[in-house]
Amino acid sequence: xxxKAEQSTxxxxxxxxxxxxxxxxxxxxxxxxxxxxIIAGLLEVPVIGTExxxxxxxxxxxxxxxxxxxxVGKTHFDACPDGLIxxxxxxxxxxxxxxxxxHVCMLQTALSLLDAGCKVWVVADATGSRNxxxxxxxxxxxxxxxxxxxxxxxxxxxxMGHCQHPHFRDIQELIK
Length: 176
What we know:
The protein is built from eight helices and six strands. It is of the alpha/beta class.
């Protein structure tokens, strides 16, 4: 099954200022999440962010905060009980997920979205945990649970669909 821009929502989980220095390859995760959000904006894909206890962990990093259409504050690790489901745009069942921590908040949110009947894609190169083993095991568990594991480039090219897309050159520059 291909991801379709007109059916997608990009969900960026907890890319927060105080959390990111502890994340393995955190700068790369921020870069990939930002790239995804820019591409989503070009293709009119809504972007939702979440923040875990923002009063303690800070807001999402500025590049993410500026690109989100809405942000859901949360206390649960799974964003769904804190209102995420209500924020999902109607008619967009393809949920593309990046963020942190892969084995906690991202995993629990993705599993709940799957249970709610959403089609979930997890962008492996836009996810992070404090250690790589936790991240890798979470990605494996998500795959076994029905989520599709993809990369930023896979998302970009599937959302565009063809090389004559009006934003092809802009997006190609972003992912180079």
